[in-house]
Amino acid sequence: MTILTTARLRLEAISDHHFDGLFKMNSQPEVMRYITGKPETPTETRAMIERVKARWTEYGFSWWSFIETDSDEIIGAGCIQHLGRDPANPLEIGWRLRKDKWGLGYASEAAQAMAAFAFDKLEADSLYAVCHQDNHGSAHVMKKLGMQYRGTEHWYEMDTAVWSMDKAAWRAKE
């Protein structure tokens, strides 16, 4: 499974030994506000880890834990996955961070690495991202990544803001 590195982060495929750090993040109401609307339980975090491990095995990509290299702590998570979790759909990029790490550039740093993986290693033609319409922080990261706003669509049981970029736009940034 692919490990990605950035100036301040190591992105490791989510695994069982990441439970404590992932639960610490996913149990924060502010982190989950725009994702599910409620903190995760330990059972939900364990089930997520099992789903993610299965996707890594099946597809060769899924969710990473973001490990801050200075502290060796899990400070976030992000993914390349099929939009809507359906292999018939294009690839999607996504992320979340512990509240105490918001606004420090970690999401953009990780998103750059994950997008490079999608375009360079997976040879994706395009990459999508969705967020709750009120999640201006995530939308800012999408814009900073070079994505273009497409409009509102229904994904993950809610109306979401949809952003995308194609391989040519990604290459033009390099």
UniProtKB/TrEMBL annotation:
Biological source species: Iodobacter violaceini
InterPro entries in UniProt: Acyl_CoA_acyltransferase (IPR016181), GNAT_dom (IPR000182), N-acetyltransferase (IPR051531)
Protein name (Swiss-Prot/TrEMBL): GNAT family N-acetyltransferase
Domain N-acetyltransferase, chain residue ranges per copy: 9-170
PANTHER family: GNAT FAMILY, PUTATIVE (AFU_ORTHOLOGUE AFUA_3G00765)-RELATED-RELATED, N-ACETYLTRANSFERASE DOMAIN-CONTAINING PROTEIN
A Pfam family it matches: Acetyltransf_3
Gene3D superfamilies: 3.40.630.30
Protein origin, superkingdom: Bacteria
Transmembrane segments: none
